[in-house]
Amino acid sequence: MARASKFTDEQRLEIALDMLSGKMSVSEVCRKWDIGSTYAYKLKDRATELLRNGIGKPPGRPSGEVERLRKKVVDLEQLAGDQALVIRYLKKKEGHI
Predict the structure, then answer these.
(1) CB neighbours of 62 closer than 8 A, spacing ≥ 6?
(2) Are residues 51 and 93 in the same domain?
(3) Distance in angstroms (rounded) separating the CA atoms of residues 31 and 73
(4) Assuming Cys at both sites, which of 3, 53, 69, 96 could form a disulfide with 91, CB separation 3.0 to 4.6 Å?
(5) Same-domain check for residues 50 and 97
(6) How far is C-alpha 80 from the geometric centre of its chain's CA atoms?
(7) pTM
(8) Is 42 left (phi over 0), alpha (psi -120 to 50) or beta?
């Protein structure tokens, strides 16, 4: 079971920003927030990755994963429709409808 974080999302963001800004040393950030350097770097790396993934995409444009899932939904809806037609045909052929 995952342990609940002692920090809110806003606080984790502040820690990451403290790390990214360079205005404080890593040890100062760690003392300020009473955290270890491993956790501080983890938050910094996570924030950097999120920024990299987000920059360059126009606002409102879905991610590649969202587009892939939308296509999959369309394909599955088509398959369900095709199956419904086959079932209807078979029922008519057997005289159930």
Answers:
(1) 70
(2) no
(3) 49
(4) 96
(5) no
(6) 28
(7) 0.54
(8) alpha
